[in-house]
Amino acid sequence: HQSVTGHLKRDSNPRTTREQDLEDVIQKSKKIGLKAIVAVAEDAGEFDKIIQICERFPGFVFPCLGVHPVQGSPPQQERGATLQDLDAALPLIEKYKDHLVAIGEVGLDFTPRIVNTDKGKEEQRQVLIQQAGIAKRLDLPLNVHSRSAGRPTIQLLKEQGVQKALLHAFDGKPSVAMEGVKAGYFFSIPPSIIRSEQQKLVQQLPLENICLETDSPALGPEKQVRNEPQNITIAAEYIAKVKGVPLETVMETTTQNALKLFPRLKLLL
C-alpha cells in the first residue's frame, strides 16, 4: 500500500492501554505501507504524552493538539467541554505550536447524555470558535468531531472562515456532508464503515474529498475490539468497492488529499 495517513488517539480504557506493544503497532503500520500517522489529542492532560510519542517515532508520528467537545473518561462521567478546559490547553498548544500538523480533535457533540442544555451547547461552540481562531493564526487545519451535530458544526466552521478542515467519522446526512464538500472540507472514513449506517455517505462523497482514518483504538471493523492503524486498509478497500475504482486509485487520491489538508505533513515527509 502506498502513502496513506492513519489516525491514532489515546486509549481511554486502561484495560486496553498497552505501552509495551506500541512499538509493535507502529511496525505493523509501516509494514502495510503507512507513511505517516497523525496522533490526535482530546484534552490537555495528554498533550505531553502525545509529543513524547511523536519524538519517539520522528518522521512517522505527528502531533495534533486540541480540546475535544467531550471531556472526562471512565470512571469519570463524560461531559461537554468548557472554556476552563480550553484555558488549561492554551499554554501547551502555544508551547508546541511549531510541531503541530493540525489543531484537534475539536468540534461539537450534542449527544443528549453529554449536553442537554442550550448553555452547554453554547459553551461547546465557544470552545470550537476559539480553537478555529488558533488554527487560523497558526495556519493549521482543524481535525473535527461532529457527533449528533453535523449541520451546526459545518455551519460554524463556515461562519468562522475555516478553509481547511477534516470531519472525521461524520454521522450526519449525506446532504449535510455535501455542504462541507462545497466549502472544501474533507471527510475521513474509518474501518467501522463496513458495519456502519453511513455507507451512503461514501457513495455520495467525491473521492477528492475523502481521507482515510482508523481513529484507533476506536471505530475498528469489529465492535469492542481495539482498532489499530494497520486497519486503514479495510477502509480503503471498502471505498474502492463502493466507488467501483481500483484500490490503488483510492490510496493515491486519499494520500494526495491528506497532503493537501496537512501542508506541514507534506513538508515534514
TrEMBL record:
Residues annotated as binding a divalent metal cation 2: 145, 168
Coiled-coil zones: none
Domain of life: Eukaryota
Protein name: TatD DNase domain containing 3
Species annotation: Scleropages formosus
Record keywords: Hydrolase, Metal-binding
Gene symbol of the encoding locus: TATDN3
CDD domains: TatD_DNAse (cd01310)
Pfam families: TatD_DNase
UniProt function note: Exhibits 3'-exonuclease activities and apurinic/apyrimidinic (AP) endonuclease (in vitro). Show preferential AP endonuclease activity on double-stranded DNA substrates and 3'- exonuclease activity on single-stranded DNA.
